[in-house]
Amino acid sequence: MHHDNGRLLPWPYSVQYGEEQRIETDVLILGGGIAGVWAAIAAARCGARVTIMEKAATIRSGAGGAGVDHWQWAADNPASGVSPEELTEALIDNQGGYRNGISTYIQCASAYETLEEMERMGGKVRDVGDEFKGAEFRDDASKLLFAYDYTNRIVIRVWGADYKPLLRKECRRLGVRILDRTTATGLLTEDGRHGARVVGAMGLNNRTGAFVVVKAKAVILATSRPQRIWTFSTELRGLATFRPPSDAGNGYAMAWRIGAQLTMMEKSMRSPFGSPYSFPAYGSGNAINTWYPCNIVDANGKEVPWVDSNGRVLGSVDERCRPAEGQKFFIMGGGSSSLPHPGHKRFLGPKPIPDLEQRMLRGEFTPPFYADLASMPEMERKVIWGLMVGNEGKTRIPVMHTYAQSGFDPERDMLQTYDFLRGSGMREPVVPQERTFGESGVCGGLLVDWDLMSSVPGLFGAGDLVFGGQDHSHAAATGRYAGARAALYAREQGWGEVDAAQVSSEKRRVYAPLSAQGPRTVDWKELNAGIARVMQNYCSEPKNEELLDLAQTWLADLERNEAPLAVADNPHKLMRTLDVLDILTCAQIIVQACKARRASSDYLHFKRLDHPDIDPAEWHKWITVRLGERNTEIGELPIAFWGELEPNYRPRHDANLAAMGAAAGEGQRRSWGIG
Amino acid sequence: MAMDDVPPGQAEAGPGDAAAAVVFATPNATTPGQPVVFDTAACTGCNICVYVCLEDVFIPNPIKGKPPVILYPEECWYCGPCVEDCPHEGAIRLNHPLQQRVRWKRKATGEHFRV
Q1: Lowest-confidence segment of A2-11, A15-24, A450-459 by average pLDDT
Q2: How many domains does chain A have?
Q3: Domains along the sequence of chain B with CATH
Q4: Distance separating the N- and C-terminal Cα atoms of chain A
Q5: Which element (helix H / strand E) includes A446?
Q6: Which A residues, 600 through 619, put their C-beta within 8 Å of a C-beta on chain B?
């Protein structure tokens, strides 16, 4: 209830529209999720004065703030059977080349080192209580637990439910200044010039409405990816989204406005989390990620067989966690029986039989299907419904705690799957229009170099906002790396001048929704839904030039006619309105990128009727987009433009470790010992 | 709306006592409208849930010591830190939208249950 018998409650916070706070800092981090706090800690360890601007509260904010259960691609761990180079190449290859070699290598080469730092901050990383002693997925020497490929041991199962509060505590200990409930709205450039060095950023306190101007020598964007581009329904989706609904692509829009390059913006996809009709993430019966490799049974309790990538039917649960004959290691498995896997068979892990649907139609299996934890070996059951579901942020309270309160018992009960034949078991999108921009999977984002710096000097990126990377451990490792790079960069820089005109123009933009008036004013939710409908109609699947032109036309129409009428009457709604204006900008960027790629691509989930050839060699490249002085500028980069991995990474990483000092890690180079 | 404004006869038309018969012109509620349920006996109004919430769903109750007001229920992500970080066991629990309550089956008896 927000009113008391019709009496509206007064706004509970002191309202300070337009009041300006000025701050100076060496390194400014926009977004205090996983990437942001790791960046702050690293930069502070390097001796920089650090400020975080965070839309929510740093203690739990971000997609990983409520917890994490597995630490992906830690090829640098002592039990790994795969080298960081080998794993990075495989992950890139699995995406047909469309994965960020820079950030993925940083992840693969330092995820474990980053996790060890987490451990020194108090995070539980090892099975010190010997709870899983004797389990196939446990390395007794290190007491680390592994997921998926038990032979090669590259993904670590962790007790990450309290990592975020611990990271925030470390930020506080290191003297990081935290501006919670402050949404970053715009970047400041030297003399206000387009594309010039970034010298700070501006933000809105979304409780008080006050304005903050932060002058900085380096700025790191860590504001995740835009959601709500194709589907938006607060009525249907809240519980079922995999990333926080407040992820509005603020960083993409801010970077765009000052002329930074973005890439792979044409990729969007149907995702198991992308349907308005889906169920809580990992909250219905499934066999992927957190639930891998759970038994799935039909209505009569008949077990669905699993096969490896050679099609061999597997006889035991343990075999689901081993590479196939002739396969050195596998990357991911489980999941749907029929969803096309864009990756190579070479790296595909075991999964339920691919012809389950046909066999059901022939009467061999009877729906509905269930995840049968009770029939799993005890250690496997305990590690799924316990460690994994109990530490993954989107399941700890919403699934494990809440279902237990309702009486669910993993030793006795089978959790229903929804749509298991077509996908994850959490109900797939029904139509191609139900797409997402990277709600799961790798997607486009800020183009960065080996310093994780963007095409604009002084502007760095970390985590999900960086093009072509993903995962909690990716956010942590790239945040840490970017934090140190930005601190080292800041050491070399003098202060830039904050341009008064840039500040006043941003203030006008930010506060405009407070003065929108008249019968045609539009609420943020309606504007969001209107944008999503344009994207559903004209930038879905398949695409062609005419459809994309119409998308451009109608988005421009919304920008011209409805955006100026977007109305807000308190600081919270003002934040949401600005978020939707950024979503509109992101949608416009996406459409322009789609127009620029004149070829279809399976890897990019990109189908053009007017350019039907799939992944032709001449289009095997990155398309970049940026806002130039006058128009959008389209560019391109060769597919592996980052060059060699280790020679580019190592000197920078070593310099990072030296600057961060002993607290960050031992700093010695590991010997992989890969045969 | 004051009682005087109610057309004659209507205030007495409903069942129950006179107070219950006062009808207000209310808009439809936003749904799902109750992402969490507070136990008013256990909640002390400490507002830690207001502090940690990722979406700023709550505001502090104007009456000190009372549970927060759920101002923006439809923005809830159901992520759970409000429950996780609550210092008072049971003071707040998630209340999943009706259309997203997952079902399960008890192996031994074949009985069906839901969240």
Answers
A1: A2-11
A2: 2
A3: 1-115 (3.30.70.20)
A4: 64
A5: strand A445-446
A6: none
